[in-house]
Amino acid sequence: MKVLAAMSGGVDSAVAAARAVEAGHDVVGVHLALSRMPGTLRTGSRGCCTIEDSMDAQRAANIVGIPYYVWDFSERFKADVVDDFIAEYSAGRTPNPCMRCNERIKFAALLEKALALGFDAVCTGHYASIVMDADGNHELHRASAWAKDQSYVLGVLTTEQLAHAMFPLGATPSKAEVRAEAAERGFSVANKPDSHDICFIPDGDTRGWLAERVGAEAGDILDRDGAKLGEHEGAHAYTVGQRRGLHIGRPASDGKPRFVLEVRPKENVVVVGPKAALAITEIAGSRFTWAGQPPESPETPFDCDVQIRAHADPVPARAFVMSDAAGRHELVITPFAPLNGVAAGQTAVVYVGTRVLGQTTIDRTVSAVPVEDAVTAQAR
């Protein structure tokens, strides 16, 4: 096959490209330039896709002996990832920019261009596996090493995208083995730290970065009954589950700490309450997709596992697609045990065994503690 290897400049994508070559594929390496402005992306272990990273990727491509190019995706990245991040926070939601990048850049924009140029597949260094079912359909599964599994951030992939994706590291037992292989191959990135955090916020100050773009206007901090407890300096700076930095003058009647339960940007209000109210018994979202073949009857409740963060443990649940009279559809997920601190905007990925069945962006949640119960508890 003719394969386009997405090379971020890290050890994983370098080894993945090398393995694709050894598997007999005709491989071309490409690095995605996501910003035209130096200093707007993090470097080293604090991000990816910088000039430094592009040079690391080129050195690895030279050793493997494959053609190498840098493609400018900066405009698409700004529109589909950065602007989306700002819009989601402005709406009071908590987005996952890495999920959006995989969805809209690496497996939409990149794959679209690759197919147009005659490539058969895009290869990345993600730890996940693609297998074929008995009918020849592509399925996305967890990697063999669960500690490094990255199937969660790939949950946004569609059936068509899975048919043109390649993950050579999926069966690798550990990251240590990948680093050892990189060293044997002579890759300078063998011991390069993993990237993390948000790549387009150079100094890591998400609160300050958002304040410059969204604005910071003082507003009220309320309890679940609507009583004013204090003031904040900008609702965008708060996330569901946050405890510190609330600066509420008077303590709760029971003496226990309060947590952020909800952010309402249109009203410029932050709602706080007891920790018990962070327990969520139902999540739902209308922006859902299936990774491969959908359930035979998605309107019928089915057992599954749900994962709401990249490094969270999966939780047994039941899910189904609910439709209303207006033709709107919503994936509703009910965990068997309450989830903690779930925020609108997060992604819920649904698994059946090791298989990624699909995902949804969370639009709404249902707390285990109704408002009246929380108010009564705080009044005691």
TrEMBL record:
<feature type="site" description="Interaction with tRNA">
    <location>
        <position position="346"/>
    </location>
</feature>
<dbReference type="InterPro" id="IPR046884">
    <property type="entry name" value="MnmA-like_central"/>
</dbReference>
<keyword id="KW-0963">Cytoplasm</keyword>
<feature type="region of interest" description="Interaction with tRNA">
    <location>
        <begin position="148"/>
        <end position="150"/>
    </location>
</feature>
<dbReference type="InterPro" id="IPR023382">
    <property type="entry name" value="MnmA-like_central_sf"/>
</dbReference>
<comment type="similarity">
    <text>Belongs to the MnmA/TRMU family.</text>
</comment>
<keyword id="KW-0819">tRNA processing</keyword>
<keyword id="KW-0694">RNA-binding</keyword>
<dbReference type="InterPro" id="IPR046885">
    <property type="entry name" value="MnmA-like_C"/>
</dbReference>
<keyword id="KW-0547">Nucleotide-binding</keyword>
<dbReference type="GO" id="GO:0103016">
    <property type="term" value="F:tRNA-uridine 2-sulfurtransferase activity"/>
</dbReference>
<keyword id="KW-0820">tRNA-binding</keyword>
<protein>
    <recommendedName>
        <fullName>tRNA-specific 2-thiouridylase MnmA</fullName>
        <ecNumber>2.8.1.13</ecNumber>
    </recommendedName>
</protein>
<dbReference type="InterPro" id="IPR004506">
    <property type="entry name" value="MnmA-like"/>
</dbReference>
<dbReference type="InterPro" id="IPR014729">
    <property type="entry name" value="Rossmann-like_a/b/a_fold"/>
</dbReference>
<feature type="domain" description="tRNA-specific 2-thiouridylase MnmA-like central">
    <location>
        <begin position="209"/>
        <end position="273"/>
    </location>
</feature>
<feature type="active site" description="Nucleophile">
    <location>
        <position position="101"/>
    </location>
</feature>
<feature type="binding site">
    <location>
        <position position="32"/>
    </location>
    <ligand>
        <name>ATP</name>
    </ligand>
</feature>
<keyword id="KW-0808">Transferase</keyword>
<dbReference type="Pfam" id="PF20258">
    <property type="entry name" value="tRNA_Me_trans_C"/>
</dbReference>
<feature type="domain" description="tRNA-specific 2-thiouridylase MnmA-like C-terminal">
    <location>
        <begin position="282"/>
        <end position="362"/>
    </location>
</feature>
<dbReference type="Pfam" id="PF20259">
    <property type="entry name" value="tRNA_Me_trans_M"/>
</dbReference>
<keyword id="KW-1015">Disulfide bond</keyword>
<feature type="binding site">
    <location>
        <position position="125"/>
    </location>
    <ligand>
        <name>ATP</name>
    </ligand>
</feature>
<feature type="site" description="Interaction with tRNA">
    <location>
        <position position="126"/>
    </location>
</feature>
<feature type="active site" description="Cysteine persulfide intermediate">
    <location>
        <position position="199"/>
    </location>
</feature>
<dbReference type="Pfam" id="PF03054">
    <property type="entry name" value="tRNA_Me_trans"/>
</dbReference>
<feature type="binding site">
    <location>
        <begin position="6"/>
        <end position="13"/>
    </location>
    <ligand>
        <name>ATP</name>
    </ligand>
</feature>
<keyword id="KW-0067">ATP-binding</keyword>
<comment type="function">
    <text>Catalyzes the 2-thiolation of uridine at the wobble position (U34) of tRNA, leading to the formation of s(2)U34.</text>
</comment>
